[in-house]
Amino acid sequence: MMEANQEKDLHKHWDEKQQPLFDGKDLIFSLASIVVAYFTVQGVAQDRGGFWTTALAVGFTGSIYTYARVRGVKMSWFHYGYLAYVFALSLSFSLFDNTILMGTNSLLLFFSCMYWVLVVAGTRKENQLSSYVFFDFIDGFLVRPFKNVTAGLSIYRLVGKKHKNVKLVILGVVISFPVAAIVISLLSSADSMFERLIHSAADIVSVGFAEQFMILIIAIPMGMYLFLCVYRNLEKSPVSQHVIPTVKGPDVFFLTVLVIFISIYLLFFAAAIMGYIEFRNGTTIYTLSAYAREGFFQLLAVSLINVCIFSLIKLFSHSSKGIKISLSMIGIETLALIILGFAKMQVYIEAFGLTPLRFNTSWFMVVLALCVCVFIASLWKSFKYLRAIVLIVSMSVLFMSYRNTGNSIVSYNYEKYQQGELSELDISIFYMVGVEGVSTAVKAYEETNDTEDKAALEGYLQMMQQQINSSNISNLQRSRSAEQIKKTIG
């Protein structure tokens, strides 16, 4: 009842008070937001990463943390837990290249930073990660920032009225600029040394000026948007209440659907067992590679379809005992499909080695299997299974970010090649993993006596050397790789 009254008062406050009450700390944070946006746009435009990404994430979360603390927001271990995850994920960019993740870590870092704003502001529905997470993002980053935008953009005018010194400083700069230009021109004519100094400074400023100006033009509205996101959420600007409909269908219908799919999968597993027995006995024309490759991606697709069926029926059924047992059977069969697909992939990897696609697919199946286990458990014990799934996915990406997976892939292939289990050393895989494969390539280059392999590895190392020298991306792995390449091929 008290929370309802507070919400009603909050709506009344925002209805009656159209102009927000900004002060000095709001102005400072808005300027800090523009600075963060400027460096973000610059990093994207110049294709930066590594240390740059870590610094941006720390700057973003640090500025919001400072602003929230100044505004009197109390932090708990829960807030610091989210902050620690963001910092740990961002730190991985300074240590490893992680080409193998194909931007998954960057995407997760972006959403983690934005979600932390909602955590700090306390504007999440039910004040926790729930099935309303989609609406939390919509309200926090689309609805609130764009409510009464003109009032939000009036921050500089309002602060100027309250703090006249700020307005006077800006006015002084504007008036002084043309007069200063005339004075500098006259002084340049009076002294050649001063003229050369001014010309040198002008040359430095003019380099990339147009690009930097365009970046600033883009960064200003982005920075203001970021400021409004944080400010409006901290102010808990009211939004429409969202209610997920609880429409329930007849259990007989759902049971019919489940029985059909359960029967299909039982028939499939019987056929799969018979096919495996034929393969082991040598009575089939399949080769090892053909058997391992056959139907792998179809099995993965069916597993994903099952997850969708599981989720929809769990959401719209009455969760009777029959539904729970049937869904559990579908879940177990889905696990069996995932295990079968995973086993096929491992046989294929044993025969032909690892590639980024094969590794990522195997990793995805492991994560999917864990999520299916959570789904099954949620049938019999009530808990926030969505939170568990998000935790599994986010922690798996964090783990992969520190694993140096690209090097593990080429190292696995090189060891199999040395043991004679692979007929050739596929150099194309080194190019796929990029800089991550340098340490193994250096090791193979120093150990191999095969002239073709040595030449191919040298070509890869030269390419990576050029890539490191010409790229704006800087991290610890690239620095060490550059040193290794220089010691190996000069």
Commentary on this structure:
It is flat, with a radius of gyration of 30 Å. The longest helix has 32 residues, at 321-352. The N and C termini lie far apart (74 Å). The chain is built from 22 helices and no strands. α5 crosses α11 (209-234), α8 (155-162) packs across α9 (164-190) and α18 (405-418) runs antiparallel to α19 (427-433). With 490 residues, the chain is mainly α.
Blueprint (SSEs and pairs):
Layout: H1 2-16, H2 24-45, H3 51-70, H4 77-95, H5 104-121, H6 133-143, H7 149-152, H8 155-162, H9 164-190, H10 192-206, H11 209-234, H12 251-281, H13 288-293, H14 296-316, H15 321-352, H16 356-380, H17 385-401, H18 405-418, H19 427-433, H20 438-447, H21 451-470, H22 476-489
Helix pairs in contact: 2-3, 2-11, 3-4, 3-5, 4-5, 5-11, 8-9, 9-10, 12-15, 14-15, 14-16, 15-16, 16-17, 18-19, 18-20, 20-21, 20-22, 21-22
Q: What are its keywords?
A:
490 residues; disordered N terminus; single chain; flat
SS-derived structural category: mainly alpha
Unreliable runs, pLDDT <50, ≥5 residues? 1-17
Q: Kindly report how far apart the N and C termini lie.
A: 74 Å
> Which bin fits the share of residues in helices?
over 70%
- The percent range for strand residues is under 5%
In N-to-C order, the SSE pattern is: HHHHHHHHHHHHHHHHHHHHHH
What general outline do the C-alpha atoms trace? flat
